């Protein structure tokens, strides 16, 4: 076997041009397989991250009845004892973020609109989503300050500016009337358009007072150290709270099933595109191997005529193909990794209609990329398998070759 490898290595460099062309076709096949998958996955990761950080969180603890009837009557008590139990359930929990949410009528001097009122702890929210950094006018409120921050889209709909006063009217806990005046301390550019057009942020203390829900929250967001630990932390929380029938633990796929379905639908389209791409890659590789085999037909005939066995020649040719495939795959891996690595930290900015479309869907106008080990090795395995299947052709040619005809070419 050592001799076969040595012969194959020498053979592939006897015709450097042919070797470089074949290896380059495999390298570009890997590159063009990785690049669209990286862009697709990067877009999905951005979508999930935005929705989780600014809307549902990666994990939520709720009252068991809140999902069926999202009413303030089904808010859950929030105290230091619950916080201690949740934190003790798993060491990978980094932040606990209490929220209270409801829909209310929001009025300015000129108009009235339905709004999504969200009571938050601004310092804890900042740890999850850097919410304060989104302020474009004014400032963010402090704890119990009695002011509000609204999305730019909602400010435009209500025709209000910083310093104007909002009237909030709705129903509090157990049917209590909820009404209050809140000056606008800041206007923010929310990354989710739907939220920007209807959200009103209040301090958690102010929202609890307004809604007569003292020491209660509608949800407790639990942030794992990294998003991939979400399922592990969820299992730990369910184990810790299983004796408490009033609590349920929800992960982001359970909280956003529509988003998950949209991603799966998009992935199905990507699979079709990838299938077409692999067909093009396979045809390109087949053309390269066919040309290489035709060029070497006389060489094969001469070797067989001087006494080399077909089995031995087949082994050498297979090892040649294997070496060229490995060289191409490694080159493709390096090229695709360097390019995706660069664009991972420097997303491609979008302009014009494409940027506007992204903003309307609530995402930053950039084309993000993803980096993940499986992103590379899966594509490498598929391209390698394609090259190995296609490379059976020269071996079959050797076993069917007419020595006299081949030697005369």
Write a brief structural summary.
With 409 residues, the protein is of the alpha+beta class. The chain has helices at residues 2-14, 16-56, 80-89, 122-129, 152-158, 193-196, 204-210, 230-241, 252-255, 257-295, 297-305, 310-345, 352-360, 373-390, 392-400, 403-408; strands at 59-63, 76-77, 93-107, 112-120, 135-138, 148-151, 165-171, 177-188, 199-203, 216-217, 219-224, 247-251, 348-349, 366-367.
Overview of this structure, please?
This protein has 409 residues and is of the alpha+beta class. Helices cover 57% and strands 20% of the residues. It has a 6-stranded mixed β-barrel, surrounded by 4 helices. A two-stranded antiparallel sheet has the order 2-10. A hairpin with a 4-residue loop joins strand 3 and strand 4. Helix 2 packs antiparallel against helix 14. The protein is elongated.
Order of helices and strands: HHEEHEEHEEHEEHEHEEHEHHHHEHEHHH
Separate helix tally: 16
The radius of gyration over CA amounts to 31 Å
- Count of structural domains: 2
Strand content: 15-25%
Count the E strands.
14
Shape: elongated
């Amino acid at each position: 076997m050592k001799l076969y490898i040595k012969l194959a290595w020498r053979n592939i460099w006897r015709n450097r041009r042919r070797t470089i062309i074949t290896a380059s076709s495999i390298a570009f096949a890997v590159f063009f397989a990785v690049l669209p998958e990286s862009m697709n996955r990067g877009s999905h990761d951005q979508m999930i991250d935005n929705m989780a950080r600014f809307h549902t969180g990666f994990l939520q603890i709720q009252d068991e009845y809140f999902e069926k009837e999202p009413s303030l009557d089904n808010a859950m008590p929030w105290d230091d004892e619950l916080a201690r139990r949740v934190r003790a359930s798993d060491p990978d929990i980094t932040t606990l973020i209490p929220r209270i949410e409801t829909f209310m009528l929001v009025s300015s001097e000129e108009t009235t609109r339905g709004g999504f009122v969200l009571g938050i702890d601004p310092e804890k929210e900042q740890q999850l989503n850097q919410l304060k950094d989104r302020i474009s006018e004014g400032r963010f409120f402090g704890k119990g300050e009695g002011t509000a921050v609204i999305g730019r889209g909602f400010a435009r709909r209500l025709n209000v500016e910083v310093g104007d006063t909002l009237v909030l009217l709705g129903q509090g806990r157990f049917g209590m009337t909820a009404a209050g005046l809140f000056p606008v301390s800041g206007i923010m550019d929310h990354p989710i358009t739907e939220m920007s057009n209807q959200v009103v942020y209040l301090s958690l203390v102010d929202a609890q007072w307004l809604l007569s829900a003292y020491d209660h929250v509608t949800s407790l967001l639990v942030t794992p150290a990294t998003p991939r630990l979400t399922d592990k932390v969820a299992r730990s929380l369910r184990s810790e709270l299983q004796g408490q029938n009033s609590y349920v633990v929800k992960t982001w796929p359970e909280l956003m099933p529509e988003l998950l379905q949209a991603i799966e639908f998009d992935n199905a389209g990507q699979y079709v595109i990838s299938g077409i791409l692999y067909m093009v890659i396979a045809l390109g590789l087949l053309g390269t191997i066919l040309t290489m085999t035709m060029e070497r037909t006389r060489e094969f005939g001469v070797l067989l005529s001087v006494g080399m066995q077909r089995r031995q020649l087949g082994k050498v040719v297979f090892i040649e193909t294997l070496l060229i495939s490995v060289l191409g795959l490694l080159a493709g891996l390096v090229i695709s990794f360097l390019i995706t690595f660069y664009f991972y930290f420097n997303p491609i900015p979008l302009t014009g209609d494409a940027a506007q479309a992204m903003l309307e869907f609530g995402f930053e106008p950039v084309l993000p990329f993803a980096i993940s080990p499986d992103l590379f090795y899966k594509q490498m395995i598929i391209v390698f398998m394609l090259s190995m299947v296609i490379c059976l052709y020269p071996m079959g040619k050797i076993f069917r070759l007419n020595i006299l005809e081949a030697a005369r070419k």
